[in-house]
Amino acid sequence: DKGGYKHFMAKEIAEQPTVIGEAISHYLTQDGTDIALPAEIDFTKIDRLTMVACGTAFYACMTAKYWFEQLAQLPVEIDVASEFRYRDPVITKDTAALFVSQSGETADTLAALRYCEGKAEQILSVVNVATSSIARESDVALPILAGTEIGVASTKAFTCQLTVLLILALKAAKDRGTIEDSRYQELLTELRALPGIMNHALTIEAVTEKISRKLAEARDILFLGRGVMYPLAHEGALKLKEISYIHAEAYASGELKHGPIALIDKKVPVVVLAPRDGLFDKTVSNMQEVMARNGKVLLISDSKGLMEGGEGTWEAIAMPDADPVLTPILYAIPAQLLAYHTAVSKGTDVDQPRNLAKSVTVE
Ligand code: M6R
């Protein structure tokens, strides 16, 4: 049941504030002032974390690496499951191996998990389907509580994965004593406010629809981001190519001048994901290099960011303010809406894109 929406994907995008709210209540204590995870999750027992997944779930891991390193000072290794399983990765006894999967049945991710059995200290998973193979074969499986996701392009599972991974990173920071109590409380408060901010962010729909009509004309689109926005640039590009069939690539903003800037001309829209965080000025200077070469920049930022860096851009999307730690979850919304409306504009099959399956159970 599409609940009045044209596509499951649209319904699942709109459901995000609700399902994220449910995941937050599930993993926080009733009064919301602490994290409540199964007792087996104890980050004082491990010294490194290896995270493995495919596709969108991999981009959730890539984002979480920034969180675990910055908040918990925990060394993190990430890899896509199809590479990990065949490269003889070294898993030391002090490692927790964490597998992220919506379906819990992705063949490569499951094989990577089995590779870590008997090698890692603990096998954790972050899954949507709680009865899945990956959940069953883990020491601890943490459900993301996104509800059934039908659209082949993952949306609400991604933001729920991020939410649960951020809660895990905060727990790691607390266990390892790397976060001040006031900052811990502040981030929990921000987290509790997130569903409301996500709701607010969904009001950008009309502007993304208008911009998407122009993006639909493009042959190639680039996505740029720095820090936590870099994995999200990948997620935005993946979403767009999956359902609109437009060639899209993501680059770390700072990599631009190491090659990709050669692609820039007036036909290539460049989507810049840049909340006004500590890296904003650096991203803006990369963006100006694009504009100097007649690149068409779509800047996605908050109101301050647009005021400081928005001059001369082709298009802009104004996002609500949020703590920089939480922006990857929030900025998933414009990434998803741009892909969705571009696909609708092109008339492709949004929920069942060509050549793709919801669950990839063969390698
Ligand atoms: O079920 P999983 O999360 O393990 O699936 C992983 C990928 O196949 C999946 O995220 C895929 O990339 C999506 N179609 C992305 O929208």
From TrEMBL:
One of its GO terms (molecular function) is glutamine-fructose-6-phosphate transaminase (isomerizing) activity. Keywords: Aminotransferase, Cytoplasm, Glutamine amidotransferase, Repeat, Transferase. The active site is at K358 (for fru-6p isomerization activity). It is an enzyme of class 2 (transferase). It comes from the Bacteria. Signal peptide: none annotated. The keyword Membrane does not apply. The keyword Glycoprotein does not apply. Residues 39-178, 211-353 form the SIS domain. It is found in: Cytoplasm. Its EC number is 2.6.1.16. It catalyses: D-fructose 6-phosphate + L-glutamine = D-glucosamine 6-phosphate + L-glutamate. Its main location: cytoplasm. Homodimer. Catalyzes the first step in hexosamine metabolism, converting fructose-6P into glucosamine-6P using glutamine as a nitrogen source. This is Glutamine--fructose-6-phosphate aminotransferase [isomerizing]. It comes from Cognatishimia coralii. The lineage of its organism: Bacteria, Pseudomonadati, Pseudomonadota, Alphaproteobacteria, Rhodobacterales. The gene is glmS. The chain holds residues 244 to 606 of 606 of the full protein.
